[in-house]
Amino acid sequence: MIRLHVNGAVREVAAEPRDSLAHALREGLGLTATRIGCAHGSCGACNVLLDGEPVRACLIPAPLADGQAVVTLEGLRDDPVMIALRDAFHVEHALQCGYCTAGMLIAARDLIRRGRARDAAEVRAGLAGQLCRCTGYDGIVAAILRAALTPPASAPAPR
């Protein structure tokens, strides 16, 4: 058993040494926004925040996360930047199948928080590790720029 601080609550989950954090979150805790796409860290569908930093949960052995703070997309429901992103993704039609969406939103939030979403080229560079097989990225880039240009009043300052 490992103990994680997931989305603000202490949770225990059974995890074998070979289990990934993504597997523990999805299968052990039922947090299904965390997707396992490639299981090699190439697609970004499994992005979560680990102690505040975005990571590929498929690459992190679950036991190594023992005692750490994990935030999944479910835990960002009331986050002002995430609210702006969700609205912008809707307006810009940035969604199709939805498989990459959770990981894409986590990555987009990080870009905005770091002040790295000033133009399309910067957003595209920041999304280089995110794979979307459906959209062609134009709507996603437009949505991130929309959210970055009109952040909510309570959005945190870029790091």
Can you describe what's shown?
With 159 residues, the protein is of the alpha+beta class. The protein has two domains: 2-75, Beta-grasp domain (Ubiquitin-like (UB roll)); 78-149, DNA polymerase, domain 1. 33% of the residues lie in helices and 13% in strands. The protein is built from five helices and five strands. It has helices at residues 21-29, 80-91, 101-113, 120-126, 138-149; strands spanning 2-6, 9-13, 47-50, 53-56, 69-71. A five-stranded mixed β-sheet has the order 2-1-5-3-4, with helices on both faces. Helix 2 (80-91) packs across helix 5. The longest helix is centred in the last third of the chain and has 13 residues, at 101-113. The radius of gyration is 15 Å and the shape is globular. The mean pLDDT is 93.
Q: Which descriptors would you attach to this protein?
A:
33% helix; 159 residues; globular; single chain; DNA polymerase, domain 1; alpha+beta; five-stranded mixed β-sheet; Ubiquitin-like (UB roll)
Topology diagram in text:
Elements: E1 2-6, E2 9-13, H1 21-29, E3 47-50, E4 53-56, E5 69-71, H2 80-91, H3 101-113, H4 120-126, H5 138-149
Helix pairs in contact: 2-3, 2-5
